């Protein structure tokens, strides 16, 4: 007998995206400038047009509705809203009101991320993530966002993946400002925590003044981290250190301070960690996938069980409802995504059955978008986007996800059933 996996009433099935990766047409951000520098982005791609969602959001919301999506996580582009320090563009707020209104009319619950990777250029010029002003600037923007949009959105994320942002921008040097300094990475990480705390308070104060009821959390990037060679002390120490600094530091600080109303989990993969003298720039840390493991188009290990581990590990610490704020796979031909989707959703359903309070799952992503330094090469979309015509074509996995969302269950023997995720060949 196969396992019958169900999701409770009210569980939100949705998709996730960020402004820069899909909207297009924002020249004022640090990424617009960074992508123009030779060698920064694979293939010389830029976020200039992205998926043109700025103009096509109604079409995309209609697509989400057709795919039975009950939720969508999106971000607001700081550089577009606050073009000059302290000057908030009313037309851009109106645009985001239209976007959220379209979701409301389609019966789709929005989740808005205030900061997702990019900065206005003027913030970058003032020191970006390292600027002493960052907490004040971000909390002012967050406060304005709640004032402008708080009647249309209840679920808010302050910052997306602060750990990944500090790592990529200030240690690995692959995101702006492309620095390689462990000291800076730690400082950026700490500053982002200060910013989150200030944003959390400012957003609740603004909501209180306006009579809006909001829930605020962080989207934490959490990985499964294991030593490559259990018998090697150095590997174990480096795995423990990486776990501590990358997974734990920020998320624990948020949990311990109680400055969150829900806990967001972005889960993608597992790393085997090896101490490597040849990787000094990356903190002597080399990340590997287990031999023979199935990997995505980006070489990331497909490891659904890891989501179950992450949920079990964080639920007792978080003590607030959990949302899967991102989970997805780069898979251009969509031959792995169906199993990926079912495998990870099955882990969520099992965690719920064990008593973990997971309220929703947002798949990354609805569309193929601009994937930062990897450009448009990785295809994360449930829906394929033609780079020339911008035409949207749902992949088979989108229809599978729609069926699961409609039925609120994964049928053991049905299409994409729980069996398949345990390795049996697809029917
Ligand atoms: C996450 C980012 C998101 C997207 C996915 C693939 O780390 O939050 O913007 O690029 O990875």
From TrEMBL:
<dbReference type="GO" id="GO:0008422">
    <property type="term" value="F:beta-glucosidase activity"/>
</dbReference>
<keyword id="KW-0326">Glycosidase</keyword>
<protein>
    <submittedName>
        <fullName>Beta-glucosidase</fullName>
    </submittedName>
</protein>
<keyword id="KW-0378">Hydrolase</keyword>
<dbReference type="Pfam" id="PF00232">
    <property type="entry name" value="Glyco_hydro_1"/>
</dbReference>
<dbReference type="InterPro" id="IPR017853">
    <property type="entry name" value="GH"/>
</dbReference>
<feature type="active site" description="Nucleophile">
    <location>
        <position position="326"/>
    </location>
</feature>
<dbReference type="InterPro" id="IPR001360">
    <property type="entry name" value="Glyco_hydro_1"/>
</dbReference>
<dbReference type="InterPro" id="IPR018120">
    <property type="entry name" value="Glyco_hydro_1_AS"/>
</dbReference>
<dbReference type="GO" id="GO:0005975">
    <property type="term" value="P:carbohydrate metabolic process"/>
</dbReference>
<comment type="similarity">
    <text>Belongs to the glycosyl hydrolase 1 family.</text>
</comment>
């Amino acid at each position: 007998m196969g396992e019958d996996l169900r999701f409770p009433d009210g569980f939100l099935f949705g998709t996730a995206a960020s402004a820069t990766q899909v909207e297009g047409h924002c020249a004022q951000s640090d990424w617009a400038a960074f992508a123009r520098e030779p060698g920064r982005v694979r293939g010389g791609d830029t976020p200039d047009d992205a998926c043109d969602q700025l103009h096509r959001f109604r079409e995309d919301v209609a697509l989400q509705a057709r795919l039975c999506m009950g939720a969508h996580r999106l971000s607001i582009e700081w550089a577009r809203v606050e073009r000059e320090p302290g000057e908030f563009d009313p037309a851009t707020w109106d645009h985001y009101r239209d976007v959220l209104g379209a979701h409301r009319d389609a019966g789709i619950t929005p989740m808005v991320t205030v900061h997702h990777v990019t900065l206005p250029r003027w913030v970058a010029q003032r020191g970006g993530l390292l600027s002493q002003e960052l907490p004040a600037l971000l909390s002012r923007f967050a406060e304005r966002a709640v004032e402008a949009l708080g009647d249309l959105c209840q679920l808010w994320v302050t910052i997306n993946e602060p750990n990944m942002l500090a790592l990529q921008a200030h240690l690995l040097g692959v995101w702006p400002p492309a620095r390689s300094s462990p000291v800076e990475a730690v400082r950026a990480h700490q500053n982002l925590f200060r910013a989150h705390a200030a944003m959390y308070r400012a957003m609740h104060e603004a909501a209180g003044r306006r009579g809006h009821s909001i829930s605020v959390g962080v989207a934490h990037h959490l990985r499964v981290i294991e030593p490559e060679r259990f018998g090697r002390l150095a590997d174990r120490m480096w795995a423990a250190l990486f776990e501590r600094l990358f997974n734990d530091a920020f998320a624990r600080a948020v949990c311990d301070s109680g400055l969150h109303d829900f806990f967001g989990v972005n889960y993608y993969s597992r790393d085997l960690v090896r101490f490597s003298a040849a990787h000094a720039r990356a903190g002597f840390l080399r990340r590997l996938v287990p031999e023979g493991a199935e990997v995505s188009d980006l070489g990331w290990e497909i490891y659904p069980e890891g989501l179950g581990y992450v949920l079990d590990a964080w639920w007792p610490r978080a003590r607030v409802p959990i949302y899967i704020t991102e989970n997805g796979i780069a898979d251009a031909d969509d031959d792995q995504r169906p199993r990926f989707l079912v495998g990870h959703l099955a882990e969520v359903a099992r965690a719920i059955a064990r008593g973990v309070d997971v309220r929703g799952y947002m798949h990354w992503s609805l569309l193929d978008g601009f994937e930062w330094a990897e450009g448009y090469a990785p295809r994360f979309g449930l829906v394929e986007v033609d780079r020339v015509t911008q035409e949207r074509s749902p992949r088979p996995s989108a229809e599978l996800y729609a069926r699961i969302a409609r039925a609120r269950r994964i049928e053991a023997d049905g299409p994409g059933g729980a069996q398949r995720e345990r390795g049996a060949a697809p029917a």
